[in-house]
Amino acid sequence: GAVVSQHPSWVICKSGTSVKIECRSLDFQATTMFWYRQFPKQSLMLMATSNEGSKATYEQGVEKDKFLINHASLTLSTLTVTSAHPEDSSFYICSVAHLNEQFFGPGTRLTVL
Amino acid sequence: AQSVTQPDIHITVSEGASLELRCNYSYGATPYLFWYVQSPGQGLQLLLKYFSGDTLVQGIKGFEAEFKRSQSSFNLRKPSVHWSDAAEYFCAVGESSGGGADGLTFGKGTHLIIQP
After folding, report:
1. Residue B106 and residue A43: Cβ atoms within 8 Å?
2. Alpha-carbon distance values, B70 to A24, B55, B96 (Å)
3. Under 8 Å CB-to-CB from B88, ≥6 apart: which residues?
């Protein structure tokens, strides 16, 4: 299967700052990547679909100006949480679509103080 | 809109005993169904998937699942659990095979605890 990495694995930031999370496809070129958010003890919620070279498609209720997604290359998608607030604290997980499956990264734990 | 229900938040099973995790879905067309396992510090790992054909699908680590259209269910089973099976299990449904442009809709997960 495909190998997906995320960086950082965890981050703590102050309220009002911006945080960038990277998702990398290590062994193949990913046209489509997905970003999910997981609250403690809860399910994964799809935030957006990231397509290389085009604008991301956001799910209903997800603020595109708050969660900036850039998929500038076939191996890298980034999620930037702008002006983060405590309610943005969560576990962010990316996945890549490959061979009729989705392969998930290990996730990034964001804590906003 | 599609949805997935996992009725059991926690399940405790003795090591060596059989296991069944329940999953019900709501989707208007033929669903594409998945079971994933999430262990602490690790990404979600695909256990098995159903797209079409034989309704009993075999997966990794000795897991299997049965698709029952009449019951809108896709329950995960294992005949004998091991302590290493303790983890969070998620059922998910997709509008496509997942390799396309659609994200997945996940259930809330079932936390599996293994008793020695």
Report:
1. yes
2. 40, 12, 21
3. B37, B38, B39, B109, B110, B111, B112
Contact A106 B41 (CB under 8 A): yes
For residue B46 the two structure tokens come to 């695909």
CB contact under 8 A, A97 and B98: yes
DSSP for residue B41:
T
Enter the tokens of residue A46: 């799809």
Query: pLDDT tens across B53-63, in order?
Result: 899 999 999 99
Tell me the one-letter amino acid at A70: N
**What is the tens place of the pLDDT at every residue in A1-11?**
789 999 999 99
Look at chain A and count its residues.
113
The pLDDT confidence band at residue B95, using thresholds 50, 70 and 90, is confident
Give residues with Cβ within 8 angstroms of A75, minimum separation 6.
A24, A25, A26, A29, A30
**Mean pLDDT for all residues in chain A:** 92
> Is the pLDDT confidence value at B99 over 80?
no
Nearest to A102 among B51, B98, B105 (CB): B98
Residues 64..103 of A with a Cβ closer than 8 Å to B: which? 93, 95, 97-103
